[in-house]
Specification:
The chain has 496 residues and is α/β, with parallel strands linked by helices. The chain is built from 21 helices and nine strands. It has a nine-stranded mixed β-sheet with strand order 1-9-8-7-6-4-5-3-2, with helices on both faces.
Length: 496
């Protein structure tokens, strides 16, 4: 009999424990303690994981932001940007005041806290994971460049949204129609949004979300892919340098000719900001862009390449770059040291090998076309890296390899011509970005003096993440890694 009782108790014991746990969790105090204990255990586990992966734990961003503050210089008076660690660093202008009054993401950012606000989780989610229900359809234009190279322009031609998002889009359209016209709201000449991904190519999920939101506002959306990236064929023995805007300039001219009456704005992410900022500086007032935004931008290219990146991110970027190079390895062997490039263990060594070592092999350009898809041109049939004399003259110094690492950055630093920029540029950057140099290295005087540059600096956000707290409170189902073009570019004519 005793054994039967013990067997019965052992059988019902799990159910009794679950019942007691359920009753205990109904008490607010116990539920609070349980939540705190679970968060503490999760944090300890995350610390161990970060230690194994050699990921830095950035726990001093708020203290650094307090040291950064300089009353009356970098923060607009009366802006109220002291909550949630967000700072608008710029010269007080009418545009800056307008953004503070009308851009909700600046007034009430509500950035997510840990664990959703962890910089590494935000970075990985923005690069690898996208919201459910978002699909995009693109049509591609392969643009032939002056030197025989090709860049790809992907035009967003359709979206597939779930039923809930579709209803919100219809409600937003009716609101626009009843309350006046908004930017790009189904007008006869919608504006064009040019998106520039990371320098190594590819379409991150958060850029697809941005495409959705822009199309809902009535934009024409086109994505720029550099030569040899995202399936774009490489037809010449010339790779795009980090800050070389020549290809982008021709792409912008093509888009303008296709939509001559439309205003054009641009948004770049990460290392893709190198060519965007270079283009704005080199073109100056003749730029065809009305405004631009850079999400987690690389403002100082040489510093970015020379700053050590966490191993897991460095390995991922190197693998992607080497995979692109290995596709054309046999054709590039005559103009650069491919074996050395494929064995590089740092971004600086790889970029230096691809861009500077060519000076020693310039006279050995191959006579065969590059890649399986080619334009019929022989890479070695012309002078200066396979370029015709007229094309080499048009490209100037970029027709020839850089002499050394310092010379390479003299012509490729993104902000080398910042004084010539003549359109508003909004840079969005977080202090805990694991892919960029420390925020203490930012060129703050540029934003404090130049009226065209504005910097939104946050404590949290990761790299192109900026996850918001409470997705259900966001207007129109927006996610935290979206740029609000409707608020950023308030007037279709480009007048502020």
């Amino acid at each position: 009999m005793a054994s039967f009782v013990w067997d019965y108790l052992l059988c019902v014991l799990p159910s009794l424990l679950l019942l007691l746990l359920y009753l205990a969790l109904r008490w607010p105090r116990i539920r609070c303690w349980t939540r705190l204990a679970f968060r503490a255990a999760s944090w300890r586990l995350w610390v161990i994981i970060c230690g194994i992966l050699e990921l830095p734990l950035d726990s001093n961003t708020k203290a650094w932001t307090r040291e950064l503050e300089s009353p009356g210089e970098d923060i607009l008076p009366g802006s109220g940007q002291d909550s949630d660690g967000l700072r608008l660093i710029c010269k007080p202008t009418a545009l800056a005041q307008y953004l503070l009054r009308h851009c909700g993401s600046l007034a009430k950012p509500k950035l997510a806290s840990w664990p959703k606000g962890d910089p590494h989780l935000q970075t990985l989610s923005s690069l690898l994971c996208g919201p459910w229900g978002y699909t995009l359809q693109f049509t591609r234009d392969n643009l032939l460049l002056r030197d025989g190279g090709i860049v790809a322009l992907d035009w967003a031609v359709g979206t597939g949204l779930d039923e809930a998002v579709g209803r919100k889009r219809w409600e937003g359209r009716k609101e626009h129609q009843s309350g006046g016209k908004a930017l790009g709201c189904f007008t006869a000449t919608p504006p064009v949004l040019l998106l520039i991904p990371e320098a190594w190519g590819g379409m991150a999920p958060h850029l697809k979300v941005l495409c959705h939101q822009a199309m809902r506002l009535g934009f024409y959306v086109v994505v720029f892919h550099a030569r040899g990236t995202a399936g774009c064929p490489l037809t010449t023995a010339r790779l795009t340098e980090f800050g070389d805007p020549a290809d982008l300039e021709q792409a912008v001219a093509y888009v303008h000719n296709r939509h001559p009456s439309s205003v054009m704005v641009a948004v770049s992410e990460g290392s893709g900001s190198g060519i965007l900022l270079s283009y704005l500086g080199e073109c100056g007032s003749s730029s065809r862009l009305t405004a631009a935004a850079a999400i987690s931008p690389v403002l100082q290219g040489q510093l970015w390449f020379e700053t050590a990146m966490p191993p897991i991110y460095r390995s991922a970027v190197l693998f992607h770059r080497k995979l692109q190079l290995s596709r054309y390895a046999s054709s590039f062997r005559g103009v650069l040291d491919v074996d050395r490039a494929l064995s590089c263990s740092s971004l600086r060594d790889l970029e230096e090998t691809l861009s500077c070592s060519r000076a020693q092999l310039q006279q050995r350009a191959p006579s065969r076309p590059i890649g399986s898809q080619n334009s019929g041109q022989n890479a070695g049939s012309h002078s200066s890296r396979g370029l015709a004399p007229s094309v080499a003259w048009a490209l100037g110094e970029r027709a020839y390899p850089a002499k050394d690492w310092d010379n390479y950055w003299e012509r490729n630093e993104p902000l080398r011509d910042a004084d010539e920029v003549a359109v508003p540029v909004l840079c969005i950057r977080s202090c805990d970005d694991p892919l960029l140099p420390p925020a203490s290295t930012l060129p703050l005087p540029l934003f404090q003096i130049n009226p065209y540059f504005l910097l939104v600096l946050t404590d949290r956000g990761g790299h192109c993440g900026f996850t918001l707290e409470g997705r259900e409170e966001m207007e129109g189902g927006r996610t935290g890694n979206e740029v609000e073009e409707k608020e950023l570019f308030p007037n279709r004519s480009g007048k502020y």
